Amino acid sequence: MGRLACCEKSEVKKGAWAPEEDKLLVDYITKNGHGTWRSFPKLAGLRRCGKSCRLRWTNYLRPDIKRGAFSVEEDQTIFQLHSLLGNKWAAIASRLPGRTDNEIKNYWNSHLRKRIPYKSTELQASSASMSADTKSNTLSTTNMVERESARVEPDARLSMDTIHLSPPTGLPDNDYILGAWNSEASEVFQKSKEVNSVIKVESDYNVVTMQVEPTFADQRCKVEPEEATDIGSYSHDSYNADKSSDITLDLLLDFPNDCEYLQYLKGDSDDDSGST
DNA sequence: AAAGGCGTCAACCGCGGTTCC
DNA sequence: GGGAACCGCGGTTGACGCCTT
Predict the structure, then answer these.
(1) pLDDT band at A116; cut points 50, 70, 90
(2) Which position has the higher pLDDT, A111 or A253?
(3) Nucleotides on strand C with an atom closer than 7 A to protein CB?
(4) Under 8 Å between Cβ of A180 and A254
(5) All residues at 6 or more sequence positions from A266 whose CB lies less than 8 Å from its CB, including other chains
(6) One-letter-per-residue 3-state SS of A127-162
(7) Is residue A231 predicted with pLDDT exceeding 60?
(8) Between A175 and A199, whose confidence is greater?
(9) At the N or C end, where does chain A have fewer CB atoms within 10 A?
(10) Cβ contact A55 with chain B strand, < 7 A
């Protein structure tokens, strides 16, 4: 027996929401909360699928939704997180208060994706793990294929991460990556632009030094783990801790740090200068 | 002025994961 | 433990408005 339909298709209205429907939805949720979405339309007096109600609420009517154009900072955050997470729109949205996954997805597809410069996609496609042959092949592929590679690669990284990284706290992978992104190490790295500068960072798990060094096309970091220090209560094998931190940081540091990657954003966003 | 093309974005669809019984 | 119900996510569609010819 298959799954039941989420609603009686013949009896539900589809398409754009009328203001009266919005009002019914908001009024009901304000007074009673949404309860289970399946029974919501009946209770609220709406001829809509529960799923449709949920979508309308979460993507449009929720009071904390931030409407309007994306700021340059939001652009940059989306770019950086997309580089780390790929099309994990919900995870990206969780870092942008007031923005929904749907909004970010649409914004990416209609605005940001087309701004990815050739060089950046090339860089992403030719990650450190690629062989020289692979690199040369990659360079000869079409722009479309490279864009697809750039899109798929973060997912591949996450898969690798699942195998090697084993989030020590049992967090979902995305949370772990985001945790790393928000870590002191990442913050320091994100701010660092000076080639050959050495950064020493005490993370939650150990201490690492990082040297920003130029590579064939951009700056990347070389991570030298120091003596592991068990700062938190988490107990773990120190080798694994070193290894995990290395991989986590590699993951973060693989993101091009030449700032050029983001420069065009600022340049382009002159068009959107009115936006905040 | 009209028609076709294109871009944007709200909404829908189907699937996978989680929770509940 | 297994199945049903529910929720959330990502991909896709379609309506609408703007631009170009």
Answers:
(1) low
(2) A111
(3) 3-12, 15-16
(4) no
(5) A72
(6) CCCCCHHHHHHHHHCCHHHHHHHHHHHHHHHHHHHH
(7) no
(8) A175
(9) N
(10) yes
